Amino acid sequence: MPEFELIERIQARADTRSDVVLGIGDDAAVLQVPAGKQLVVAMDTLNADVHFPAGTAAQDIGWKALAVNLSDLAAMAAQPAWCTLSLSLPQADLAWLDAFLDGFLALAAHHGVALVGGDTTRGPLSVCVTVHGLVDAGQALRRDGATPGDDLWVSGTLGDAAAALAQWREGVGIDVALKARLDRPVPRVSLALALAGVAHSCIDVSDGLLADAGHLCARSGVGAEIALAGLPASDALRVLFDEEARRVLQATGGDDYELCFSAPVQARAMIERAAASSDTSVTRIGRIVAGKGVRALLDDGTQWRPSHSGYVHF
Amino acid sequence: MPEFELIERIQARADTRSDVVLGIGDDAAVLQVPAGKQLVVAMDTLNADVHFPAGTAAQDIGWKALAVNLSDLAAMAAQPAWCTLSLSLPQADLAWLDAFLDGFLALAAHHGVALVGGDTTRGPLSVCVTVHGLVDAGQALRRDGATPGDDLWVSGTLGDAAAALAQWREGVGIDVALKARLDRPVPRVSLALALAGVAHSCIDVSDGLLADAGHLCARSGVGAEIALAGLPASDALRVLFDEEARRVLQATGGDDYELCFSAPVQARAMIERAAASSDTSVTRIGRIVAGKGVRALLDDGTQWRPSHSGYVHF
Fold first, then answer.
1. Does B135 touch chain A (CB under 8 A)?
2. Closest partner residue to B21 among A38, A121, A313, by Cβ?
């Protein structure tokens, strides 16, 4: 029965941790949450031809499926701990599975995450991951804490993943630096952990900056102003796209998995230190204001209105 | 953006619990595991045309997606607490979602389970659920505790779901009682909770009795003998299928979601009381022996060898 071969293959390669009482191989995993900690849980699915081109390398699919979930934990400033994986495959392909695990488990090992369960089944290629993280009680970084007067920050650079996807759709060669951002997003876990207790609110940028900043503002009951000229861009994006194309990619492109967070003005030096200590760049891109909605401002102070503000899921 | 309409629809209908610090609506949920408890996590996906006929009513898909996961928690004797749901849909169909939630949330409410997160996305119809339960530290009921001399037990009746599927494949009308077993499996949660500290080992019967008893034996390093004539059958199965067909369905049919468990002979009276108190029938079907493998015995004591022992996933 090949399912068991697949599971055994996964089990043989999965690392464990001392807080895993029972991992892969029973009806469920048993885990020990330390006293004083709260559990943080996120779940995200990647479907072939929706979240990645069907031809994407198995290693990259594995990496990305875990990365997008770890990015959600990062947005809560949670320390990653465990994950489960539900893998739907058109056929039981052990070589594909091995390559998938190369990517998935490399990122898991980097963050000390134990793969503790899940299932494998037949179906159109789809990868569903649930991640579990830990925070000190009451210390999760939420979307609803933004306060008028806060600075609005973003980590890394914006628009690279969407730029790679645009090149792929046009059938031109994809720039390698941009492709790496699309296929191997880096969850900003260490930056996030350093922001706990400093930032007021946080969200990860998966649907596009304006859309996700909008979610943060809606949950906080505030508005935001963002200066488009100040959005951080990679060298590749600057070289390969003109100003207007870049603006669309940076402000509305999805799949960046950067953190967008607000923090009081007094915290600027602490945030710069958090960025330095986690080797992650951060940029102040605007501020939180009273009211509602996100205003994206051009250099002349007028509001820019994109045709859409972010990734449309359906 | 219809995804947010879907999420809002789910959020508006999802119940919460006092141990949910933060539910649907942020990057991740935040949950409080009580002191002294361990966390039990299971994850299972149902794909259209693999785990259910594509024409299955949305209510039933919702029910079953949660039920198969709660069955895994039951097999560990864990008290269900929270779940997350990742729903892939070909299109954003609010009427379908409402019907799906009718089934899903009815079962969740029955077991006091809060839906705390997940995602909705475009893709072939697929439902992935992660469930979280709680056990007293060290008290999870595992597959690896079976001991030679133990009785082997099973809850409820076997083969009904597979019988319904057989009728569906043959294109004959499906008996309503059998169809209910296929579409609305009942996770044996209350029986399982009563078995904690009494049974030595447990597994849920999802792939077929012989296959799943085999997994339990393999993990425990023991063998088992099962008397086929003693397997519990529903009235519908008895009326509609002859003895040989029944035997195949009961011993190898999947999707029953009954519990197969081992317990010492001395515990028989306690198990009968656990069954009575949880209003769930139980049947002694055999015993655990030294050695390995499961021997399915005919009335004359000879071994029956089916063409396959359970559901083949690929």
1. yes
2. A38
pLDDT along chain B (314 residues), means of 10: 82 95 97 97 96 92 98 98 97 94 98 97 96 97 98 98 93 93 97 97 97 97 97 97 95 96 98 98 98 96 82 59
DSSP per-residue codes, A155-202: ES-SSHHHHHHHHHHHTSPPPHHHHHHHHS----HHHHHHHTTT-SEE
ipTM of this complex prediction, to 2 decimal places: 0.96
Q: Is A183 annotated to bind ligand?
A: no
Q: Is A259 on the interface with B (CB under 8 A)?
A: no
A303 SS3 class: strand
Cβ separation of B43 and A117 shorter than 8 Å?
A: yes
Q: Which residues of A touch B135 (CB under 8 A)?
A: 30
B102 is in an annotated binding site: no
Q: What are the structural domains of chain A?
A: 3-136 (3.30.1330.10), 150-297 (3.90.650.10)
Q: Compute the distance between CA of residue A122 and CA of residue A281 in angstroms, rounded to an integer.
A: 41
Contact A26 B126 (CB under 8 A): no
Q: What is the pTM of this model?
A: 0.96
